[in-house]
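REVIEWER CHECKLIST
Item 1: Sequence provided? yes
Item 2: Single chain? yes
Item 3: Sequence as submitted:
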Amino acid sequence: MKMHALTAWALLSAAAVSAQTLGSSAPAELEEPLRENVSAFYDHFRRGEFRQAEAYVDEESKDLFYGSKKSRIINFEIKTIDYTEDFRTAEVLVSCRTMVPMLGSQPLDVPLSSTWKYGEGEWLMHLKQPSEIQQKSFSSPFGSMAFDKTAPGGGQLAAQQAQVKAPTIESVKQMYRVNKQALRFAGSQATAKRTVEVENRSIGNLKLESFNREIEGLTVVIDKPELGPGETAVIEITYDPKVRVLQGRQRLEFMVMPITQRFSVFIDF
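Item 4: Structure as written out by the authors:
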């Protein structure tokens, strides 16, 4: 069975939330009650009051809500609300700050999209059945996942519970790519530069850190220490033989966080 975005947030690595323009604006008498109910629902998850949160789920979705895994969040913020033309259905994108133990000790902001329907004078969350979700598959270290392409920001997550598994070394390494790990400055008599590119292939933000002792004659600069999904950082390595002539092989160390993956770049002189 595929789980709704809210109940599967702990399976994510990290996800950046991008603010979007509303598809349409609703009358205040409709939007204010919606914001109140969305806030109340997520506030119960912040306090770990899952039974109370059930009051904000519509009747036809209660079985899905009962059977789903639930986890507390640290905080939340409503990012976007996108309405249908009749203002009776809304897609709400919320950024939830939470801890993902397997991905480090720092809290992450996870985008969660949910559907809310207005009926009998009240807004209630509607959990979509797997057949209702238009999916785009996505590989992650926790198994096969999919995102609703129609949701604001693509935040709707559906994960196949049967396929969810603990990350392996290989699956975590697939979350980033280093284009080269061996460089040569052999024969350099003047200042020379070499570059290494690191691509973020995950669904969340990654941080790139240098763990190198100072090597006289060698300068290392990372142009983008924090990478959003799909972004690439360039590590620029400059060798100045006038400062010091280097010989043999030097090893540079880098760390990708919060997935705590270390990689080396070897330089031959």
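Item 5: Key structural point noted by reviewer: The chain has two domains: 2-167, 175-268.
Item 6: Recommendation: ____
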